[in-house]
Amino acid sequence: MIRSELLAEIAEGNPELRAEEVEQVVDIFFEEISERLSEGGRVELRGFGAFSVRDRQARQGRNPRTGELVDVPAKRVPYFKPGKEIRERLNEN
C-alpha cells in the first residue's frame, strides 16, 4: 500500500472528514512516530507492533563491484517488531 492508497482508505471510512483533514491526520501520525524515534524513544501500537531504534556498530564491508574493503560507520536504524495479533493474522490458514 502506498501513501495515496492509505489516504483513500481513511477518507472512505470517514466521509465526514475533508481530504485535507485526512492528509493532515496521516502527516501528524507519521511525524510523531519519526520525532519520537529520532529522540531515541519507542512507539507501541497495541495489536499492530512497536517501532524502536537500534544501534549498529561500525564494521567493515565490501564494495560489491570491486570487492574492496570499505569502512561502514556506526549508525542508528529504525526497527519494527510486529505485535502478536498481526503475526497471528499473517499466519492463519
From TrEMBL:
Secretion signal, residue range per the UniProt entry: none
One BP term from GO: regulation of translation
Protein name: Integration host factor subunit beta
Family: Belongs to the bacterial histone-like protein family.
SUPFAM superfamilies: IHF-like DNA-binding proteins
NCBIfam families per UniProt: hip, PRK00199.1
Keyword flag Transmembrane helix: no
Gene3D superfamilies (UniProt xref): IHF-like DNA-binding proteins (4.10.520.10)
Protein source organism: Qipengyuania vulgaris
Subunit structure: Heterodimer of an alpha and a beta chain.
GO molecular function, one term: structural constituent of chromatin
SMART domains named in the record: BHL
Keyword list, A-Z: DNA recombination, DNA-binding, Transcription, Transcription regulation, Translation regulation
GO cellular component: chromosome; cytosol
InterPro entries in alphabetical order: Hist_DNA-bd, Histone-like_DNA-bd_CS, IHF-like_DNA-bd_dom_sf, IHF_beta
Transcription recorded as keyword: yes
Function: This protein is one of the two subunits of integration host factor, a specific DNA-binding protein that functions in genetic recombination as well as in transcriptional and translational control.
